[in-house]
Amino acid sequence: MADKTLIMKEAQKFLSRGQIDKAISEWEKLIQESPDGNTFNIIGDLYFKKGDKRNAIESFHQAAKFFRDEGFSLKALALYKKLLNINSSDPEALCALGQLNEEKGLSTDAIKYYLAAADTLAKEGKKDRLLEIYEKILSLSPSNIPLRNKVAEIFLKEGLTSGASKEYIFIAEIYAEKGNIKEAEDYYRKVLKIQPLNKEALLGLVRLYELSGRPEMADETLKEACALLPDDTGVLFRHAEILLSRGETGNAGERLREILEKEPDHVGARRLLGDIYLQSGDKENAWKEYLPMIDAMILEEKYGESVELLESFREFDPLETGKRLASLRRKLGEDDLAAEELVLLGDALRDRELFEEAIGCYRDALEIRSGDEALTEKIRALTKEQEPPPEQPVDHDEEEEEKIIPTAVTEEGKKSTEEILIEADIFLRYGLHNEALRLLEGLKIKDPRNIEVHSRLKSLYASASDKESAVTECLILSELYKRSGNAELAEGVLKEALSILPEDPRLAERGLTAEAPGEPLPGLTENVLEEPDLKDHEEEISEADFYTGQGLYKEAYEILERLSGLFPENREIAKRIETLNRMESSIQEGPSEKTGEYPESSAPSGEEVFIGGDHTPPAHEQEEFEDFTLTDQDLVEAEEMPEPILDDDVLDIFHEFKKGLEKELGEEDSETHYNLGIAYKEMGLIDDAIKEFQTSRDDPKRFLQSSTMLGVCYMEKGVFSLAVDVLSGALERIDPSDESYWAVKYDLAEAYERDNNPQKALDLYTEVFGWNAGFRNVSDKVSQLKTRVGEGEGRQEKPKEKKDRVSYL
């Protein structure tokens, strides 16, 4: 097995000599033995470093696919956006980003990337793939007529007439369902203009003519269709139906016989032809047409309809109808009726002197009506024997078991675990800890073995200084990890419990005490308790990485600072905080005016942050290696890449999608408007987000959340006075005993601060400080504003020293 550390040393040696090809060869040794997303990413970076974009792109695609297959969607997202930084029109990367955003429920973002992918595929002439992408786009808003019109226009432009026809037919059917006959007719005619032999459009027109009371137009259209499609039995049959509705039975019969010549087993044609014969009094020919049709219906398990037809011909052919009716009654579980049918069938057979067959029917009936003297007498009379019939039932191989069709019971109106977790995350992000706690505790009862739920509760209890509850969650997680076979995580979470509340007696019962460092947990070295393993906090770290990737630096800081307090010596947490500082500095400094790129960092290479990796090199070795792994900074940079550029016609489709989505939502669906606002805000579409929050705010149940988010959006837009107004209104409607009251008050203080009203901001921050001095960074805010208010607002703080952005590309 290859030694990764040795390979890294060799690769670095070659890199220091400028021998990139040899370095790549070293990493490819690991790929051959054990493919890994990080390794593919490193190889891609090396190819890009040497200027080989083609191989770099291929490697990044392999890395992204690996991460996606393994469920690391954020890393996959970062890789695909990294690809777009190299080639902004990479269709596979654009399509993958569309799918990832669709999976996250961000429909608007998804369609944006799908459209960009479709635009590229159209320019490359990949029409089959283009159709597939547009199917995805339309599935996100199926009833959006302007959107489908735009897509149809694109298809026509690309010469994809079948795709355009499909969209026009879909639009016609939407109009027809709404009763808009004229509009539906216009779209069917559009189809026939580009595809004169389109069967769906022809039959659609006929249906419209029938609905609008124009049978002569339906007849004329079908005559033309039959001439154009003489071998299409579906069109021929439709014409026969129209002829019958107009009373032209002779012409209809000719058309039906024409169908049966082409398709002898056409059930519909036989039935209509049988109806014609029956109406004319020709029962014999009618029965000839009905009988094969009835047998086909029985095979399709259309029992009720078959019974009705057989009943109507009982007198005409008692033997054939009786055989089928007796069998059908048994299949339907109608035993009494089955016995009656068997007796009638036996009588008919007896009258034709088919005595053996008649006796068989009577005996079958006797199995159902045990002890029936009349039946016994019938059997005796035919057999001329005085012995009673056998008491034991006779087995019949021809009996079939009834098929049981399972019914699926679905629960509606209940949110999934994943949906509840997302909602809890939103509450946490905006300081509504009580709401998040309520959701998670309810979810804990609903899904008690869900590791993710307990992990979030553990973090929430720890941040709220509810140490006993946090330890309880640690103990539960330890048991769950053990059951899943992950002893290492089970031991790690117990160690975390010890760091939270060392004196907890439940830990002492398990042999865990702060005073006994010489007795470590089985399988752990003595220094484990001194230096926690980052794997124990993957959920919290992933959450911080996600917030960082979305540009929500304050939220990421809150998580990382709390973890840093729990584990002050943990280098990985410190590295992430450094990355956030570096990112903010890079954003403040901006890209170079000459190159358009951000400056390279002067920080030493090798400052590598492993996200959930299994192979962290020793500290003395880390400084020797250049960093090509996918770090949290890569995730941040990927989220900041420019949006895909869309051509005018494609941009029109995007706008139509947004309008259609809003129309579908309506004004009353406050929850959907609220969630859509969250999605728009996270994508940087602040104006759209404001509109959604203004709508959802009308619902009293969503007033508080929507007002808070509206205030945040106003601040991001720089209209601080509006933020003050909306947050002040929200604060008046919250009970001070509710924790969210203080979160909103903090946001209001921030709005006053940014609106250049430091005194009012200081008053509010001071109130929050009096409630909880550890809430967010209120202590720093109070200190800063005291200085500002006391010494005047003209004084400016010394700017932070800017740090260059790390870039190895």
Quantity of strands, as a count: 0
Number of helices: 41
Characterize the biggest β-sheet: none
Q: Quick check: average pLDDT? A: 75
Helix content bin: 55-70%
- Structural class category: mainly alpha
Task: Record the SSE blueprint.
Elements: H1 4-16, H2 20-33, H3 37-49, H4 53-69, H5 73-86, H6 91-103, H7 107-124, H8 127-139, H9 145-157, H10 161-177, H11 181-194, H12 199-211, H13 215-228, H14 233-245, H15 249-262, H16 267-279, H17 283-299, H18 303-312, H19 318-331, H20 335-351, H21 355-368, H22 373-383, H23 417-429, H24 433-446, H25 451-463, H26 467-483, H27 487-500, H28 505-509, H29 538-549, H30 553-566, H31 571-589, H32 619-622, H33 632-639, H34 648-665, H35 670-682, H36 686-696, H37 703-717, H38 720-732, H39 739-754, H40 758-771, H41 778-791
Helix pairs in contact: 1-2, 2-3, 3-4, 4-5, 5-6, 5-33, 6-7, 7-8, 7-34, 9-10, 9-34, 10-11, 10-12, 11-12, 12-13, 13-14, 14-15, 15-16, 16-17, 17-18, 18-19, 19-20, 20-21, 21-22, 23-24, 24-25, 25-26, 26-27, 29-30, 29-33, 30-31, 35-36, 36-37, 37-38, 37-39, 38-39, 39-40, 40-41
Question: How does this model look, in words?
Answer:
The chain is mainly alpha-helical. The protein contains 41 helices and no strands. Helix 13 runs antiparallel to helix 14, helix 23 packs antiparallel against helix 24 and helix 30 packs antiparallel against helix 31.
Keywords:
809 residues; mainly alpha; 41 helices; 69% helix; disordered C terminus
Quick rundown:
Helix content is 69%, strand content 0%. By secondary structure, the chain is mostly helical. The longest helix is centred in the last third of the chain and has 19 residues.
